[in-house]
Design a protein that fits this description.
Aminopeptidase; Acyl_CoA_acyltransferase; GNAT family N-acetyltransferase; acyltransferase activity, transferring groups other than amino-acyl groups; 11 strands; eight-stranded mixed sheet; GCN5-like_dom; GNAT_dom; three-stranded antiparallel sheet
């Protein structure tokens, strides 16, 4: 039986992230100012055709799958990449009072955009903050580390945008923010998971130390889809 995380984008768009979706039948994508992800229930010719009709204009979208996808010839595959999909299997972390963790809101978006553009943890757009539950650490009134929640294929919630300014690495900020996200997700009765590039060995070690275990390999595709 398929696991809900075999198709995390589609299952998020029909459950916990539905309020951010643009949908038609078995095809959905996130609002373009929130995230570039598209989810298809079947990943077949029929769903590809529906997605081409659903999108407002030609553009770049990202799809995930545990297996290779055979795309229409008219689609341009700009990039493909391998990821580890990891699920948290530890206890609820204790509240870490050593770091002052701040809830981020719309007023912080310019700094969040600047930090994610510098560190490139994954797509972060003007309204990505609408996924909610972003937290950060500040030094001298400047945002130097952050983490948040992204796709929500119930009962799982993805931790994303975990990043630290290069001048502030090695201070435990990422671990503190990661544990805070885990704690919040589990206290709400959900299960934390995440995606990480398969060759990002330093991040994988951080996640393993935090209690994440590898669930499966995933493939990501960055596609230029015609209208």
């Amino acid at each position: 039986m398929p696991h809900v995380l075999d198709n995390p984008i589609y299952n998020a768009l029909i459950s916990g992230s539905q309020k951010l979706s643009v949908a038609q039948g078995s095809v959905s994508h996130f609002r373009r100012d929130v995230a570039p992800f598209a989810g298809l229930k079947n990943l077949d010719e029929a769903d590809f055709a529906v997605l081409e009709q659903l999108i407002a204009e030609s553009g770049v979208y990202v799809l995930f799958s545990p297996q290779k996808i055979k795309f229409p010839q008219s689609w341009q595959i700009l990039r493909s990449f391998e990821m580890k999909q990891m699920i948290y299997e530890g206890p609820v972390p204790a509240n870490d009072t050593r770091q002052q963790i701040i809830d981020l809101d719309d007023s912080h978006v310019p700094e969040m955009l600047a930090l994610t553009q510098l560190t490139v943890p994954g797509p972060f757009l003007d309204r990505t903050i609408e996924f909610g539950n972003y937290t950060g650490i500040f030094t001298d009134d400047k945002l130097v580390a952050m983490a948040g929640q992204r796709m929500q294929p119930s009962p799982y919630i993805e931790i994303s945008a975990v990043c630290t300014h290069p001048d502030h690495l090695g201070k435990g900020y990422a671990a503190a923010l990661l544990n805070e996200q885990i704690r919040r997700i589990m206290n709400d009765g959900n299960i934390p998971f995440l995606h990480v590039l398969a060759d990002n060995h330093s991040a994988i070690r951080v996640y393993e130390r935090a209690g994440f275990k590898n669930h499966q390999q995933m493939l990501g595709y960055v596609c230029n889809i015609p209208k």
